[in-house]
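During the no-cost extension, the postdoctoral fellow (Dr. R.K.) reprocessed legacy sequence entries with the updated structure-token encoder. One reprocessed record is reproduced below for audit purposes.
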Amino acid sequence: MAETEAELRQGIVATCRSMAEQGLNQGTAGNVSARFGEGLLITPSGLPYEEMTPDDIVPMDMEGRADHALSPSSEWRFHRDILRARPDVAAIVHAHPTYCTAFAMCRKDIPAAHYMIAAAGGPTVRCGGYALFGTEELSQRALEALQDRTCCLLANHGMIATGPSLAKALWLAVELETLCRQYAVALQVGRPHILSEAEVAEAMERFKSYGPRPKVG
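Re-encoded structure tokens follow.
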């Protein structure tokens, strides 16, 4: 059943607060969006999550027009462009968690050092090239890094996680930060063994039924 606008607004606020509670973000950094109707709903710019209410969520159309007292997130462009280019995506979480951002600062892809790489939709998590935040160029870099993937890093910036729902996008954001933390520790311990393409493909097949599910009954 499709979620109502009120449910999506509340879901975006809850996702933002959960990001902060789980250490994915801080202050007013990061942003969240969800597909709604012919456009999207997105977090406003510069408003602390603890002060945010469902009425503060900004509606936008796919032309980038917003009709709200608050300005949309400065990153609205890549949210809009991802939703426009990817019909499989219904929600997007963008954040600057420590380990994801550390690898992004080093401009490094994350290889298949753990089977959870399957959640990314392929054998790597790509790090997209650098561009100034809020720009069309950054949006293009994000789309390139997300080709055939569900998440990516952005050079010298942070990460993007997508999903068919807010719950799945947030789950993926947490899993990506965990994967980056584990890989960082493994690099300190020694030389991580990288799974083969066949092993990753096997894990991806299993992942078709993996991840958070709505409660039934």
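The chain has one domain: 5-209. The chain has a mean pLDDT of 94. The remaining legacy entries will be reprocessed before the final report is submitted.
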